[in-house]
């Protein structure tokens, strides 16, 4: 069976303690490779390599650094097929989604930040008759990047690209559940001429390798995307060491639909915003609020469309949903369907496992699920499920829906469907979220700030926000 390796100091290597873990293929429920179960000893090796590489990488001209990162982006593009197949196999997502969204976005992430650094201009503040201040932006040093399993290479590269572009050396850990494309990235880094030690990729458990990254005193900043409970632990652990922290955490996003919306466009987008990637996108709208005059029409047509949605093996070109990422995750999602029933909800469609023909009968497939009849403040409507499950709830007034939308501890994104321009702006201003889409969903411009409020995180990624996070400002004053 294939054994993946860590990528440290520009070379693939076995973990120091030679311990490995199984990696499952969600589509079949079988083990298909093994990954290093890295420990603090592996993190130490990576820190030593990064420490030696830092003067070289941070001292390189911006245009040289940019060229290497552009090559990295092109290297992924050249191996598109290999990356797409690996991502789909590792995560269970449809091949078409990995090919249209995940891997092209990883290519763009590297290209975007590789070229962004060419346009950076330092700030200056003139004090008339006194002197002038100018602000340098220095790389931090060694930084840790820890990412989740839902959009593996997409989110891994969203952190690594700005960290490297800003001149830092990186120690990165993908989720143990989806390590494969991060493993492949080492080969592309070698081909792109990345100096050894600049990018180090370790595999293994969050509580082990991940924890050792967070605790290492020479790792000066942590960029983390994952669950809110993990984020809280990381914040508690890193704060006494005064590490810089960027935390992109969970969500429970509202999708608010007014009667005056473009119904057809809303309906097809709502299908995607509910179930894309099996509902495992932090930006999915899992709480759908519908204005009462169109509630019954929405319910009927939405449920019909959901029932016709094809759940199939990720390689099947018809598949709109593939497998969810793991058995424990599938069981967690199904437990929330049971909870919803106990809380008085009615399952309008779905709520069950889909068993495909052998050899995929042990795969983790779920029917997309729509539930109604729940109060806005029950657990099903307050806790993150992160699977193909949405609730629908009618509302009567703007005030009422705002109250329900803002009632969770989360505040990542919101979607709003209306053709009333004044209402759209009014509500966008009041929604407690880092991102608001009006008559759209998941339209992403890499220059814009990305992140959430409340328990959805601290800090922002994207554009200059990310480059600011991965640098320290240093103000210099010169007297006239
Ligand atoms: P987790 O928090 O379980 O894990 C995220 C990453 O952190 C994984 O690499 C994990 O490793 C690692 N990790 C776990 N424990 C520790 C620890 N003690 N110290 C350091 N690292 C640790 O999240 P999931 O992977 O389950 O991802 C799903 C979550 O991510 C959802 O809550 C979702 O909303 C959120 N998310 C947020 C996004 C945003 O932009 N706000 C975007 C996408 C997802 P391992 O896999 O080995 O456990």
Describe the structure.
The chain has helices at residues 40-59, 62-78, 80-91, 95-116, 152-165, 180-191, 206-215, 228-238, 263-275, 295-307, 327-342, 379-382, 398-405, 421-430, 463-469; strands at 2-3, 6-8, 11-13, 20-25, 30-36, 124-127, 131-139, 142-146, 169-173, 199-201, 219-225, 244-248, 253-257, 285-291, 346-349, 353-354, 365-366, 369-372, 389-395, 413-417, 435-438, 457-458, 471-479. The protein is α/β, with parallel strands linked by helices. It has two domains: 6-249 and 456-479, Aldehyde Dehydrogenase, Chain A, domain 1; 254-446, Aldehyde Dehydrogenase, Chain A, domain 2. Strands 15-18-19-14-13-20-21 form a seven-stranded mixed sheet, sandwiched between helices. Strands 10-9-8-11-12-22 form a six-stranded mixed sheet, sandwiched between helices. A hairpin with a 4-residue loop joins β4 and β5 (30-36). α4 (95-116) packs parallel to α5. The chain is globular, with a radius of gyration of 23 Å. The structure holds NADPH dihydro-nicotinamide-adenine-dinucleotide phosphate (NDP). NADPH dihydro-nicotinamide-adenine-dinucleotide phosphate (NDP) binds at residues 146-150, 155, 173, 175-177, 205-207, 210-211, 214, 225-227, 230, 233-234, 248-251, 282, 384, 386, 412, 452, 456-457.
């Amino acid at each position: 069976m294939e054994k993946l390796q860590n990528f440290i100091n520009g070379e693939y290597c076995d973990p120091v303690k030679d311990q490995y873990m199984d990696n499952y293929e969600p589509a079949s429920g079988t083990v298909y490779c093994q990954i290093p179960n890295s420990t603090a000893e592996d993190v130490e090796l990576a820190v030593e390599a990064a420490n030696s590489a830092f003067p070289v990488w941070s001292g390189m001209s911006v245009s040289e650094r940019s060229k290497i990162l552009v090559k990295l982006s092109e290297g992924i593009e050249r191996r598109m097929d290999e990356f797409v197949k690996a991502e789909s196999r590792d995560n269970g997502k449809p091949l078409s989604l990995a090919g249209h969204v995940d891997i092209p976005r990883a290519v763009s992430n590297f290209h975007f930040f590789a070229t962004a650094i060419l346009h950076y201009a330092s700030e200056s503040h003139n004090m008339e008759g006194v002197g002038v201040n100018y602000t340098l932006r220095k790389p931090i040093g060694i930084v840790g990047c820890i990412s989740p399993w839902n959009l593996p290479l997409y989110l891994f590269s969203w952190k690594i690209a700005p960290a490297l572009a800003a001149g830092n050396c990186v120690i990165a850990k993908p989720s143990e559940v989806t390590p494969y494309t991060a493993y492949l990235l080492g080969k592309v880094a070698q081909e792109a001429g990345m100096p050894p030690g600049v990018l180090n990729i370790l595999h293994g458990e969050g509580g082990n390798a991940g924890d050792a990254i967070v605790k290492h005193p020479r790792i000066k900043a942590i960029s983390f995307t994952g669950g809110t409970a993990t984020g809280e632990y990381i914040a508690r652990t890193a704060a006494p060491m005064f590490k810089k922290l960027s935390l992109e955490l969970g969500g429970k996003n509202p999708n608010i639909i007014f009667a005056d919306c473009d119904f057809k466009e809303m309906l097809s987008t709502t299908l995607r915003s509910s179930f894309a990637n099996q509902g495992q996108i932090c930006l999915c709208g899992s709480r759908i609020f519908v204005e009462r005059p169109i509630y019954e029409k929405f319910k009927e047509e939405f449920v019909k469309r959901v029932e016709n949605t094809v759940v199939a093996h990720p390689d099947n070109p018809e598949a709109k949903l593939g497998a969810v990422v793991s058995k424990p995750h599938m069981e967690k999602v199904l437990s929330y369907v049971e909870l919803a029933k106990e809380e008085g909800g009615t399952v309008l469609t779905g709520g069950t496992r889909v068993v495909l023909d052998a050899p995929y009968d042990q795969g983790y497939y779920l029917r997309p699920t729509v539930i109604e009849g729940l109060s806005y403040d029950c657990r099903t409507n307050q806790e993150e499920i992160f699977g193909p499950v949405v609730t629908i709830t009618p509302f009567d007034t703007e005030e009422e829906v705002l109250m329900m939308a803002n009632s969770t501890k989360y505040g990542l994104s919101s979607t709003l469907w209306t053709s009333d321009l004044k209402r759209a702006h009014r509500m966008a201003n009041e929604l407690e979220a880092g991102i608001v889409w009006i008559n759209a969903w998941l339209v992403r411009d890499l220059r814009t700030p990305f992140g959430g409020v409340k328990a959805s995180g601290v800090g922002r990624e994207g554009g200059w926000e990310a480059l600011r996070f991965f640098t320290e400002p240093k103000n210099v004053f010169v007297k006239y």
